[in-house]
Every structure is written in structure tokens, then in C-alpha cells.
Amino acid sequence: MPKGYWMAHVTVTDPETYKQYVALNGVAFAKYGGRFLVRGGTSESVRGLDRRNRHVVIEFDSFETAKACHESPEYQAAAKVRDQGAKIDLVIVEGYEG
Question: pLDDT tens digit string along 81-96?
Fold first, then answer.
């Protein structure tokens, strides 16, 4: 079964509020087995638009698990805080097993 991934591109607008989001989102990620593959760090845009300055990739055991985490009450509570401290583009994708 292919893994599932969250790919997020974020601009933090309020660092203190975003810290609260980071503390809250760990509850959902632990419950659904989310593993950070990329969490901020240095990046360089080499082509196309780079509208956000922080990039995150989270791996889950399956696409269904990735979606369930996003839709969970735990994550939705964290997302309300996130939206007060950041702008985000988020996509959930199924991994490739080629």
C-alpha cells in the first residue's frame, strides 16, 4: 500500500501563535503516525513561484491515514490556531511505489 504525504508551504505571520500550533499539532501526528521528512530548514527556489518561506513534508502509512489525520478533531483544533499565525498551501498526496 502506498504511503500518504502532506506537503505544506507556509508563511509564518505570527511566530508566537505558530509556536502554539506546533505544540498542538503533535497530538494528531502522534495519533496518526505522522513522521516529518522535511520541517523548515534551508530551501532554495530554483523554478516557479516561491510564495512561502517554510516547507514541510510529513509521511503517513497510507493516503487514507494522512486524510484521516487532517480531518481529525485533534488536527482541526490545531489548524484553527495555525490559521491565526500563518498562511498555508497544503496538499495530501499518495506516494509512488514504482
Answer: 999 999 999 999 999 9
How many independent structural domains does the chain possess?
1
Q: Is the pTM of this model over 0.90?
A: yes
Cα separation, 6 vs 16, in Å, equals: 23
Q: Is 18 helix (H, G, I), strand (E, B) or coil?
A: helix
Q: CA separation (Å) from 86 to 2, 22, 39?
A: 30, 11, 15
Burial 35-65 (b: 16+ CB within 10 A, else e): eeeeeeeeeeeeeeeeebebbbebbbeebeb
Cell of 86: 500563518
Percent of the chain past pLDDT 90, that is, above it, reads 86
Is 17 a member of any domain?
yes
CATH number of the domain at 28, please: 3.30.70.100
